[in-house]
Design goal:
By secondary structure, the protein is mainly α. The protein contains four helices and two strands. It is about 60% helix and about 5% strand. The protein starts with a strand and ends with a helix.
């Protein structure tokens, strides 16, 4: 919601005359203030302005160990898929492979949850 400056549209020193209002929870507001302080900004407004209008995107560092594990899992999944596709094309029903794939899917889900925790808790290497 855009509103005009309550000071009767008198330009401020910065020339800014418009206001943007945002509703936040108490926790969101505290988190925003903390982020602004950690970013070295004097005010939350400065922090938000910088985040909104900064055209340089910060790309987070990649956790190489997580990336390597995901690469291995992707390769394994690709090999299993190719095997099953070939078996189906040959008219065979790969029941054993289906069971292995189901087990792999379950393991993959568990590992995904574990990796999500690592991504959040471990600093990138």
């Amino acid at each position: 919601m855009l509103t005009t400056n309550p000071a009767k549209n008198l330009p401020s020193k910065s020339g800014r005359t418009e206001t943007v209002r945002v509703r936040l929870t108490t926790l969101e507001k505290e988190d925003l203030a903390k982020r602004a302080t950690e970013a070295g900004e004097k005010t939350v407004s400065d922090y938000l302005r910088k985040r909104a209008f900064n055209s340089v995107y910060i790309i987070p560092a990649i956790n190489e160990s997580v990336c390597a594990e995901l690469r291995k899992m992707g390769t394994h999944l690709y090999q299993m898929t190719r095997f099953i596709e070939k078996a189906v094309q040959a008219g065979q029903i790969p029941t054993q492979s289906l069971e292995v794939l189901q087990k792999f899917s379950k393991t993959l889900g568990e590992y995904h949850q574990e990796l999500r925790g690592k991504i959040v808790s471990e600093p990138p290497t």
